[in-house]
Amino acid sequence: MRWATKALLSALAGASAVLATKCSLGSNCPKDAPCCSQYGECGTGAFCLGGCDPRMSFSLDSCAPEPICKGSTTKFDNLDGVADIGKYLGDASSAQWVSQGEPAAHDGSVLLTMPKDSVGTVLASTSYLWYGNVKAKMKTGRGAGVVTAFILLSDVKDEIDYEFVGADLETAQTNYYFQGIPDYHNSGNISLSDTFHNFHEYEIRWTPDRIDWLVNGQVGRSKLRKDTWNETTQQWQFPQTPARVQLSIWPGGLASNAKGTIEWAGGEIDWNDEDIQKAGYFYATVQEVTIECYDAKNGPGSHNGKSYWYRDAKGTNDTVVDGDKNTVLGSLDATGLDMDKGKKKKKEDNEPQKPPKKGGKNTIPGGVNGAQGQDHSGDAKSGGGSSGSGNKGGDDAGTGDDGQSGSGSGCDSKSFSQNCGANANDDNNNNNKNNNNGNGKSGGSKASASALAMMRWATKALLSALAGASAVLATKCSLGSNCPKDAPCCSQYGECGTGAFCLGGCDPRMSFSLDSCAPEPICKGSTTKFDNLDGVADIGKYLGDASSAQWVSQGEPAAHDGSVLLTMPKDSVGTVLASTSYLWYGNVKAKMKTGRGAGVVTAFILLSDVKDEIDYEFVGADLETAQTNYYFQGIPDYHNSGNISLSDTFHNFHEYEIRWTPDRIDWLVNGQVGRSKLRKDTWNETTQQWQFPQTPARVQLSIWPGGLASNAKGTIEWAGGEIDWNDEDIQKAGYFYATVQEVTIECYDAKNGPGSHNGKSYWYRDAKGTNDTVVDGDKNTVLGSLDATGLDMDKGKKKKKEDNEPQKPPKKGGKNTIPGGVNGAQGQDHSGDAKSGGGSSGSGNKGGDDAGTGDDGQSGSGSGCDSKSFSQNCGANANDDNNNNNKNNNNGNGKSGGSKASASALAMVIAAVALFCL
């Protein structure tokens, strides 16, 4: 509650104010002063331009239409693009910004000044953006009671804020509002270094689905639209209407302000402060502002016409019109009802427009309730107007925790901004060491356990031996080398076969034909609590019916104490669980503990059949780092990796989340964003493609041995050293293990096109393998047997009379029907067995014998990095700019490979009991 009281600010405005009619919801303006300003007062002229609220005006068309979004970068070398509010009539092509107060050009920047006993300065963009990105490179003001703001504000009072209190130069306060409705849950802080002496780039990324607040390119806080539903009002309480950019400085610490305002602002303002003594004013410094319009072609976020206006007083995004109405008033007497009123005749074009007479009607909203700003339409220089950063009164505002003001009845919904309370410990903002936390520092990821993170793929020879199966010499497949018709399906490991080769992971681009692979079961939202393994099918028994099992396993999963253990017994290659259905964008959360020990790797990933991939990986020798990565069609790029820091991942359950939309990926830990990647930043000029994951993917969780002695040197070093098969977990439990308690899958809610889930299966209609080649339809997903393929789905299907007979497994040395997780290794076929187990791990991986070592100890990418393998991180850079602050990044991406020799049933029971002793 930090809004200066009306009486004093009216006096400070220095204008001959008219006693204006007030306006609010349910109390609209009269026809002779039809426009309700953002400060809740009625008038004409500038009252009808930026900030005019159509819901409170005489009629919806009282306000002039809003100039439509035009992407721009303003470098404030001078004030040529800045118009005073008293001269601006709505032509956004004549000025990019409108000012109130005393902006001053200085040393390649604009100063937002606040001289003694003034109410500061505001700059507002003349055009509106309907979603998009805005960046402001700036320094804030300083001193008790001095407040600096960078916000987006719509005419119906949707708002997204950064605010800075001059008594605390290490905190950026963030907030958002829907139609000015206060909610103390909406606030959150980001910590950073001295905001007065240092330029920082503050960014607001705003889409129809989310808001991200970033500092210097790092996400400090996020808010999803899906989390803003209000059951009482039956509305999404999320900013959604076209907004102006506003930057301001104003006095939160005026002695006559509400107590909560003054306390929040750091105390009463000192008009004899050193900045007043030396410079003549308090000041914030803005060097550059970039506005990027959202790229919707139609509907919310479009910018096809030349203006926005509202067709309904609901003021939601479905009531906004993108059209071609005029935005320019004829004079300060004009309104939306008569746009040309007072327009000069042609012969008067060179004559200055006369300002309204003193004591006349309100034509310029003053930036404060009741205070009319100076009309400079006839003056040579700008200045003197009251600050448009004006603020809510809050006499009843209590003070919240950590010195922040709470929300009280004085929070007036018609004021300029609506931060009626902020909590320094907002759940959406702050977690452990993750990123830009409310506890003080930006982005916490730690240095990687080893710089040698590139080629961590187990070698083919040893993993084939470890498979313990009678492997068939499989035909290899890759781009340009497709499978033969008798073994038409190319598995995710780059080998040809039938049966399970044609299910999860089957790559249609490398198969005999696109329809060789069975269609993929469509996304079904679900939460799996692993109290037991009832929903888990062994890969040798699963034939593609996602309704019969939510997960398919390879290796030895074990139920234990309300969770599933992904186990890795001695000399095995671990265990993988993969979802049977695919999500085409969406959210996935996994509550889990990782494995531990040198050489032990745990993974939680999304992987599509064309090898789009989004990863979390954890090295057991470093239990305080979550490594993240992504790939487009398996193409390695060392810029794609990054780390998130957190507390002991073996002993503590953490909730790891991947939020994936057509526009971005966010990696979260315990609800806090640790890293983000925008699709718009992935354009490849050479290939003319967005190199961004975009095709339906399965969820996979696995444990695997990165530290096998025969693995590539880079793999072993990245994994923390050679694996110790006599480690304490092997001695006590009988295996290394990761613990998965719960997985939640939320499908993306697109009605059509990318991200839909209207049918029962996905398949590809083109070998490009991009999201525009995916079909959402109703093809069958279930094979008749392990001899079947997409070309003959019913092959080997049991006749009705045989329904109670077990299916016979293929003969030893027969065709490949179950992909083994390693090149050439056929997994165990358990289709005729009573119990699950013994299958090869489907998390498995590229060999890297030819991987050289790059600079700084990182392994280089060699010919051993095979593009047809499970994952493709053939390189990573420990200084990726996309990650959270300095120490963030990391590197290549290893996956579990191969098949394993089964642990005995007795060993599994003994091991489970042994866990109680750990």
TrEMBL record:
Biased composition (Gly residues): 381-409, 835-863
GO BP terms in the entry: carbohydrate metabolic process; fungal-type cell wall organization
Keyword presence, Transmembrane helix: no
Molecular functions (GO terms): chitin binding; glycosyltransferase activity; hydrolase activity, hydrolyzing O-glycosyl compounds
InterPro entries named among the record's database cross-references: Beta-glucanase-like (IPR000757), Chitin-binding_1_CS (IPR018371), ConA-like_dom_sf (IPR013320), Glycosyl_Hydrlase_16 (IPR050546)
Region span, Disordered: 316-446, 770-902
GO cellular component, one term: fungal-type cell wall
Domain GH16: 59-273, 513-727
Taxonomy, superkingdom: Eukaryota
Compositionally biased region (Low complexity): 410-446, 864-902
Signal peptide: 1-20
Keywords in alphabetical order: Glycosidase, Hydrolase, Signal
Family annotation (PANTHER family): GLYCOSIDASE CRH2-RELATED, GLYCOSYL HYDROLASE-RELATED
Similarity comment: Belongs to the glycosyl hydrolase 16 family. CRH1 subfamily.
Stated role: Dual chitinase/transglycosylase that plays a role in cell wall architecture. Chitinase and transglycosylase activities are coupled. Required for the polysaccharide cross-linking at the septa and the cell wall. More specifically, transfers chitin to 1,6-beta-glucan in the cell wall.
UniProt name for this protein: GH16 domain-containing protein
Organism this protein belongs to: Ophiocordyceps polyrhachis-furcata BCC 54312
